């Protein structure tokens, strides 16, 4: 950083969600592994030097801002929560990975509070997809994928191109592409006070615990067999 960098950082207006002024605590060059994840959604972090700035609210809470430093000028980088539309620092965004690529982290522009709303509604939404499927192709593929108990959302947590074909089907009647639930493997968010990631529970509200998942799925399948017939469900499971 240039000799003027600390002054450029000190001149930034740092405010929390309540529009309260925050006190600068520290600043450092953003860790390269974190910068790479953020830069997919915030490409300006590929220019200049990415800086992490920790500030404290009047109530003692810490927040990490992210900025780009070019010469003697410094600009904050900001996004927006896809659910609440509140301003978000890249450091506030949730990071996620899938079981197919557990070391490849992606950034979701969603705040932790909004994520809890989704946690409470997604299990019932998944059950509805099986109880009232759009088409047979969707029904077949969802039966084959099995019980979904972890957070998913094609808009918040889009599937990487390499795995998209496993979680898409085409409606036989309309030709429309249907996105299937693709549960995340892990979620994490940066803790500005500890300067480390904290793990976020991925389990959906109302979903069975891992130890009870197999028994729950068997009971649910028995219900579907009762409604549609054992032969039909068995045929779909077999890919017929």
Word description of this protein:
A hairpin with a 6-residue loop joins strand 5 and strand 6. Helix 6 (213-228) packs across helix 7. The chain is 28% helix and 26% strand. It contains 7 helices and 12 strands. The model has no long low-confidence stretch (mean pLDDT 92). 25% of the residues are buried. The chain has helices at residues 5-10, 32-39, 112-119, 122-131, 136-145, 213-228, 230-237; strands at residues 23-29, 49-56, 62-70, 73-77, 79-80, 87-88, 94-98, 101-108, 168-170, 177-179, 186-191, 196-200. Strands 1-2-3-4 form a 4-stranded antiparallel beta sheet. Strands 8-7-11-12 form a 4-stranded antiparallel beta sheet, with no helix packed on it. It has 2 domains: 5-77, no CATH class; 94-237, no CATH class. The chain has 240 residues and is α+β, with helices and mostly antiparallel strands.
Task: Report the strand count.
Answer: 12
**Main sheet overview:** 4 strands, antiparallel
Helix content: 25-40%
**In total, how many domains does the architecture comprise?**
2
Oligomer: single chain
Unreliable residue runs: none
N-to-C SSE string, H for helix and E for strand? HEHEEEEEEEHHHEEEEHH
- Strand content bin: 25-35%
Number of helices: 7
Mean pLDDT: 92
Strand line-up of the largest beta sheet: 1-2-3-4
- What is the C-alpha radius of gyration, as a whole number of Å? 22 Å
Outline: elongated
The structure class reads alpha+beta
Termini gap: 62 Å
Protein name: Ankyrin repeat domain-containing protein 17
């Amino acid at each position: 950083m240039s000799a003027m960098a600390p002054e450029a950082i000190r001149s930034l207006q740092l405010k929390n969600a309540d529009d309260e002024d925050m006190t600068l605590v520290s600043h450092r060059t953003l860790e390269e592994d974190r910068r790479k994840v953020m830069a997919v959604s915030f490409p300006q972090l590929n220019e200049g030097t990415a800086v992490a700035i920790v500030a404290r609210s009047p109530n003692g809470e810490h927040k990490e801002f992210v900025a780009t430093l070019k010469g003697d000028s410094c600009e904050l980088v900001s996004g927006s929560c896809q659910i609440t539309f509140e301003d978000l620092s890249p450091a506030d965004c949730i990071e996620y990975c899938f079981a197919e690529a557990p070391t490849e982290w992606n950034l979701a522009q969603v705040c932790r509070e909004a994520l809890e709303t989704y946690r409470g509604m997604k299990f019932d939404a998944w059950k509805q997809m099986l109880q009232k499927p759009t088409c047979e192709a969707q029904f077949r593929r969802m039966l084959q994928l099995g019980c979904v108990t972890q957070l998913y959302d094609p808009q918040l947590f889009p599937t990487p191109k390499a795995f998209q074909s496993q979680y898409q089907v085409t409606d036989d009647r309309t030709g429309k592409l249907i996105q299937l639930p693709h549960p995340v493997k892990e979620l994490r968010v940066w803790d500005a006070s500890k300067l480390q990631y904290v793990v976020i529970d991925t389990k959906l509200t109302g979903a069975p615990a891992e130890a009870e998942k197999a028994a729950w799925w068997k009971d649910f399948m028995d219900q579907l067999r009762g409604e549609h017939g054992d032969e039909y469900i068995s045929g779909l499971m077999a890919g017929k």
